[in-house]
Each structure stands twice: as C-alpha cells, then as structure tokens.
Amino acid sequence: KQWYQRRVRGFHRSDVKISISLEPSQKDVAMLESVPMKYIRCSMRLKVSHLEKYIRDKTSLKDELEITCNKTPLDGQLTLENIWLDTWKVKEAPMRLYYSKKT
Fold first, then answer.
1. Which of 101, 97, 79 has its CA nearest to residue 21?
2. How confident is the model at residue 13 (pLDDT cuts 50, 70, 90)?
3. What's the gap between Cα 75 and its chain centre?
4. For the chain, how are helix, strand and coil distributed in percent, rounded to 5?
5. Tens digit of each residue's pLDDT (9 = 90 or more) over 44-59
6. Which of 8, 35, 43, 83 shows its CA 20 to 30 Å from the CA of 21?
7. Cα dihedral: 25, 85, 12, 94 (round 10)
C-alpha cells in the first residue's frame, strides 16, 4: 500500500513541463478578473478543461469560459501538448492562453 501511495503522489513528476501564461482576452480585459498567478508551469498532459476549472476556482467567474490560443478557441479535451504542437511550437515561451466568457 505504501508503494502505491508514493506512486500516486508523484504521478506527474516525471512529465514534460510547459510554461503558460493565462490572461483575460483583450476584448474583455476590463470586465474580467485576472488570475492571481499569471504564469504557471505544469504538465503537458493538462487538459484545457482543467485550466477552465482553475480559472473559475481562482477568480469570481462562474460562467462558462472560452480559452483561446492565437485567437483560436480550444476544445476542453485538448491537452497542452496538442496545443503546443499545433499552434505554438515555433514561438517563444511561455505559451499565451487567453480566457473570456463564452458567448
């Protein structure tokens, strides 16, 4: 049992990490509350739906959110690795993601 608990606790420890920046979208910057930690280093296996939950937990936003990268809306099931490979690979770190209320 102890081996299992140690394994679960460090589950994502060996994953490849990525640096991201979470910011309110340019059109909603005055209306939306900012996330306390703008820059995050996390596993590339993190899904967009997890980021949406993180934003809702850290801000007073309770509405559905839309996260975009390069002005392209992202599906909740995409991982950060998918986004990085498809849209961000040649750009500088951190990968910039913008959030806004879903319309």
1. 97
2. low
3. 12
4. 30, 30, 40
5. 989 999 999 999 888 8
6. 8
7. -40
